[in-house]
Amino acid sequence: MSDASAPVAIVGGGAVGTSTLFHLAEQHDVAGVLFEKGQLGSGSTSKAAGGVRNTYTTPLNVEIGNRAIDYFQTFEERVGEPLDFRQNGYMYLYHTDEWAARWRDLAVDLREQGVTAEIRSAADAAETFPGLDAAAIQGALYGPDCGHVDPHSLTQGFASAAVDRGATIHTKTAVTDVVVEDGAVVAVETEAGRYAVGAVLDAAGPWAARVGAMVGVGLPLSFFLRRIMVTSPMEGASGPLVIDPEWECYVEAERNGSLLVCDTAQDVHDVADPDTATEGSVGYDYYLRTTEKVERLLPGLADLDVVNGWGGVQSHTPDGHAILGPTDVEGFHVACGFSGHGVQQSPVVGAAMADLLATGSTDRFDVDQLALDRFERTDRIDPEGMA
Ligand SMILES: Cc1cc2nc3c(=O)[nH]c(=O)nc-3n(C[C@H](O)[C@H](O)[C@H](O)COP(=O)(O)OP(=O)(O)OC[C@H]3O[C@@H](n4cnc5c(N)ncnc54)[C@H](O)[C@@H]3O)c2cc1C
């Protein structure tokens, strides 16, 4: 492989890297090469709950959310691979007048941006998600267009379709260095040899800062550990993903009625090493505290068994938005810092990154708002309030 070459190398085979690889081949006829140090999707992508939404506070995220939902609806015809996507909605619960006002204002903003957003009474919310205790809440904001995508079928779909169109994927192959000459990327060193390349995309998720450091590009990322537990099936459980920002938790009913439960108040902040962060992270203490809290909303939870659980690392930026685009090193691009929405943004972001890598510009959305240099500018995008 020492004489191998490719126009573009992608570091990282999560949802973002595989989507970019696919769009390079499909939209630009560029046969890129992707290196993944483990298995495809084995980073943050495999830990994601799979939530998909267009309910954000910043217009750019709403726009990306709307486009992503449209993409997921038409995935099979665009990509030629099956996708497990359902629009079961999102429902944000509230308990106080202050939050009621906040959600009412947001619903108005969202409707102005083409998003279906309805305020529901406590009784209606409890009908929308059977098992929810109406007495525990004041009401809810309901977004019926939101839903759930399976991160595995998404990543595998993009990867298979990219390979069918001429791209190459090397799994179990870490990129160990990115070689720069005269200020421009010329090659990547990998565990399987050197590749001469014209451009590199750093799509390494929680490891993106380490890849950036290979070329002296600093990325303002911080990491935290988020944990999820899965219960035995609850009879009749179905409906939207239910989020309670005041009580800091969310619940989603799987197709078989199992509940996927997350206590965001138990996130572990300031994780230093993404390699070791998840080890032994979901234990009895987490289950106990999560169950105690969430059964106030869903009393039936007390009768269920905990059957599974996992932790995963999320990458955060100071303003809750991803970092996308070129850097000071010619040919070195980044797509990282997606916090809790990298899976759902991957189709739209991957298409834009492919444009940037192949042509140097994109008109899919205003990607400049998410450029790395925004942190030094005065015209910064507002922080995302629902990151
Ligand atoms: C518990 C939890 C719940 C979440 N829920 C949601 C959700 O509901 N909806 C949503 O959209 N998002 C969710 N997210 C966030 C989402 O998982 C991430 O934003 C998304 O997976 C980022 O994708 P990625 O491709 O950028 O990174 P990753 O999936 O992390 O992929 C990066 C890949 O790079 C590889 N890599 C790293 N370094 C190298 C190297 N040197 N050489 C080669 N390969 C390398 C890694 O092995 C990894 O596979 C959640 C995250 C967690 C942890």
Written description of the protein model:
The chain is an alpha+beta fold. It folds into two domains: 4-63 and 151-220 and 319-376, FAD/NAD(P)-binding domain (3-Layer(bba) Sandwich), CATH 3.50.50.60; 90-144 and 222-316, D-Amino Acid Oxidase, Chain A, domain 2 (2-Layer Sandwich), CATH 3.30.9. 27% of the residues lie in helices and 27% in strands. It contains nine helices and 19 strands. The protein has helices spanning 15-28, 59-73, 75-79, 97-112, 122-128, 151-164, 208-213, 284-294, 342-359; strands spanning 4-11, 33-35, 51-52, 85-86, 90-94, 118-121, 139-143, 147-149, 168-170, 175-181, 184-190, 193-202, 222-233, 241-244, 249-253, 258-263, 306-316, 323-326, 332-336. The strands form three sheets. Strands 1, 2, 9, 10, 11, 12, 18 and 19 form an eight-stranded mixed β-sheet that branches. Strands 6-7-5-14-15-16-13-17 form an eight-stranded mixed β-sheet. Strands 3-8-4 form a three-stranded antiparallel β-sheet. β11 (184-190) and β12 form a beta hairpin. The chain is globular. The two termini are 41 Å apart. Bound molecules: flavin-adenine dinucleotide (FAD). Flavin-adenine dinucleotide binds next to α1, β13, β17 and α9.
Structural topology:
Layout lengths: L3 E8 L3 H14 L4 E3 L15 E2 L6 H15 L1 H5 L5 E2 L3 E5 L2 H16 L5 E4 H7 L10 E5 L3 E3 L1 H14 L3 E3 L4 E7 L2 E7 L2 E10 L5 H6 L8 E12 L7 E4 L4 E5 L4 E6 L20 H11 L11 E11 L6 E4 L5 E5 L5 H18 L28
Parallel strand pairs: 1-2, 1-12, 2-9, 5-14, 12-19
Antiparallel strand pairs: 3-8, 4-8, 5-7, 6-7, 10-11, 11-12, 13-16, 13-17, 14-15, 15-16, 18-19
Helix pairs in contact: 1-6, 1-9, 2-9
The structure holds flavin-adenine dinucleotide.
